[in-house]
Amino acid sequence: METIERLKEFCQPVFVECGVRLYNMKWLGSGKERTLEVAIMREDGSMDLDTCAVVSDRLSEILDGLGTMQDSYMLEVCSPGAEREIRDLEELSAMDKPYVFIRLKHPISKKLEWYGTVLQYEEDRIQFEYKDKTAVRTAEITADDIDYLRLAVRF
Length: 155
What we know:
alpha+beta, SH3 type barrels, 2 domains, three-stranded mixed sheet, 41% strand, elongated
C-alpha cells in the first residue's frame, strides 16, 4: 500500500482540476476491509454530492492505474462535515461570518467553551461575537488562546 503522503501527491492534480482542496486523507479499517477516506471541500468550505462523485471517479482512475495498490480497498470521497474542525485560522478567510464552537485556554466570563459568530479574521486573531447570558458581547481572541475550534450548526 502507498503511504498517505505519496497518495496525496498522486491525487493533487485531481483536486486542482475539480476546484477542491484536500481536508484529510486517511486509511480506515484493516486487512481486506480497508477504506481510503478522502475528505474534500471547496475554498469557501462548501461541498456537494455531485462534486464528490466526480472526484471519486477521477481518483479511482488514478489509483487503479498506480499498479502499487495491489491490496483491495474501498474509496470513500466525502465532505469533512458541517461541524468540521478548523485546523488553520486561514480557513475562516473564505467564510462569511461562520458560526463556531470555540474552546479557549483562558476563560472569558469564567467559561472556556462558547458558541458564536466569527465577525472578522486577521492573520493570527479573530473577532468573535458570543452570547453571555442575555447580552451579546464581542471578544478578540488570538490563535494562541484557542484550544479547539470547529464549525457549529446553529439551532
